[in-house]
Amino acid sequence: xxxxxxxxxxxxxxxxxxxxxxxxxxxxxxxxxxxxxxxxxxxxxxxxxxxxxxxxxxxxxxxxxxxxxxxxxxxxxxxxxxxxxxxxxxxxxxxxxxxxxxxxxxxxxxxxxxxxxxxxxxxxxxxxxxxxxxxxxxxxxxxxxxxxxxxxxxxxxxxxxxxxxxxxxxxxxxxxxxxxxxxxxxxxxxxxxxxxxxxxxxxxxxxxxxxxxxxxxxxxxxxxxxxxxxxxxxxxxxxxxxxxxxxxxxxxxxxxxxxxxxxxxxxxxxxxxxxxxxxxxxxxxxxxxxxxxxxxxxxxxxxxxxxxxxxxxxxx
Length: 316
Description:
Oligomer: single chain
Low-confidence stretches: 1-58, 156-174
Shape: globular
Largest sheet: 11 strands, mixed
Helix content: under 10%
């Protein structure tokens, strides 16, 4: 999984990062015929790295140790990402912008981490507790393969899950699913581009199946013909919600499709996963479901966890 250092956020719970390569342009969402559920997270980051000083052989003067932040690298190197090598310590000047200052790529930041804030991209940094984070990036979040870093708050709009604003929305009481189980944080890594999905919903499919849509951008309400188009959507189909705790895979019929309306990961109208794995964390079909997800696509992966409340408009 190659990493990048730009991070984006949008709804319920999210994180995203992108590093070292040009920040993707957020052009107007392209038209596409699909019913968009509202699950959207967006973030970009580098892969979590081994200690920079454990690099071993030096090539072209660079240690090439795996990294997530500049602090993982020797003092004369910076954490830089590429599609071929992922995130590695390479010779080069580090950014000078501090936490909360505007950035375009991770190379602008002293930390090597440029994330999406409420209105623009901001330099972030690693964290171990909420008190490490402040201002526009007040949340300390954890992303698989990256680590912990400061992120923006999710946008308003999804807090009152049980009122009339959410057609058939599930109650906020998710039983035994709390904390990470009740959080959507999926990270996509496609070459140097990284972005997350921070919101998810599900519909019932057949007698025991669920149809899941995770998003970044758009509206947190249940989708309708009038819903705004999200920046990107991950659709996961053919997942069985039959009480089994076993991991379900592509071989079992699970399928995943990426719609990237803003072109962060791909300019193709859609990408179909070549491999998918979903592991249940909590399943109450018609109320809320939670899964760990790994989806492999041509040129990239989407990995993390999702929590999806029920939307009748997604029922099949």
